Amino acid sequence: MIFLRIILPILFGGIMISLAAQSIPLDLDGTWEGILTQEEGGVRPEYDMQLYLKVIGNDLSGYVEIRQRDDVYIKTEITGKVYQGFFLTLEDGLVLNQKELENMSYCIKSYQLVVKRKKDIRYLQGKWQGRVDGMDCVPGRIVLYRKTSRA
Fold first, then answer.
1. What percentage of residues in the chain have a pLDDT greater than 70?
2. Which pTM was predicted?
3. Cβ neighbours of residue 29 closer than 8 Å, sequence gap 6 or more
C-alpha cells in the first residue's frame, strides 16, 4: 500500500520530469568555436575548429572549418541529427575548400558531441573518428563554445 501511495507517485513524477527536461529544445543554431585534438600518432596534436549549425527539427546541417596555422585548412559541409535535445551526431560531407601539407590527406570525420553546461555557459564536447584512403585515422576529442557577438 505504501508503494502505491508514496513510491509510485515519486517514480512516476521523476520519469515525467526527466522526459520534460529531455524534450526542451536547446538553441544550437549558430557558430561554435574551439579545439579539435588528435591522439598521439596523429599529424598534429591540436587544430582550431569552427562549426556552423542550422537545426530543423532533429536534423542538423551546416559546415565545419578546421585549421592549423596557415599550413592546414579544410571546410566541409556537415549533416547530422540531434537526439533528446542534447546528443549530436555529425558527419563530414562535400569538401568546400582545403589546403593541406604535402603527403597529407584529410580524414573524413564523424563526430559525437554532447551539450554540456558549466555555470551559465553551454558548450559542446565529444569525440571524433575518421577514415582516409580506406584506413582509420588517429581519433581525437573536441570542445566547442558558442561564438559570441562583439559590438
1. 81
2. 0.77
3. 53, 54, 55
The CATH architecture annotation of domain 25-146 reads Beta Barrel (2.40)
Q: Which of 25, 33, 34 is nearest to 58 (CA)?
A: 25
Q: What is the DSSP letter of 97?
A: E
User: What Rg do the C-alpha atoms of the chain give, in angstroms?
Assistant: 19
- Return the closest-CA partner of residue 108 out of 148, 64, 151, 71: 64
Percent of the chain with pLDDT over 90: 55
Domain chopping of the chain, boundaries = 25-146
Q: How far is CA 102 from CA 43, 99, 106, 143, 145, in A?
A: 12, 10, 11, 28, 31
